[in-house]
Design a protein that fits this description.
The chain has about 90 residues and is α+β, with helices and mostly antiparallel strands. About 15% of the residues lie in helices and about 35% in strands. It has a 3-stranded antiparallel sheet with strand order 1-2-3, with no helix packed on it. It starts with a strand and ends in a 12-residue tail after the last helix. The structure holds zinc ion.
């Protein structure tokens, strides 16, 4: 689940070739998501997420959970909703 987008400001220092210390800041946008698998909140860099995925049209799974296992479970639930049988025992002609 997509929650919000925030901006973090990081302060850095660098020393010039003349020995002066310059302060500079860099902004970084972060997306906050709630894991659909374990319900914990996690963050991703905006630059590493496709913009269209920052919505609730997609499922979001954190790094600690198994994405493939979660995707399988979503498929199972959808088959239950639409009453599709995926078993190999019954053969329909
Ligand atoms: Zn998770």
């Amino acid at each position: 689940m997509f929650i919000k987008e925030t901006t973090e400001i990081h302060l850095h220092q660098r020393e010039s070739k003349l020995g002066n210390v310059h302060n500079f800041k860099r902004r970084r946008s972060v997306y906050h998501f709630k894991c659909d698998c374990c319900d914990k909140e996690f963050m991703r860099d905006k630059s590493k997420v496709t913009p269209s995925r920052a919505s609730n049209n997609f499922h979001h799974v954190c790094a600690k959970c198994d994405v493939h296992k979660y995707a399988q479970q979503v498929g199972v639930n959808m088959r239950k909703i639409y009453k599709l049988d995926a078993s190999s025992i019954e053969v329909k002609i």
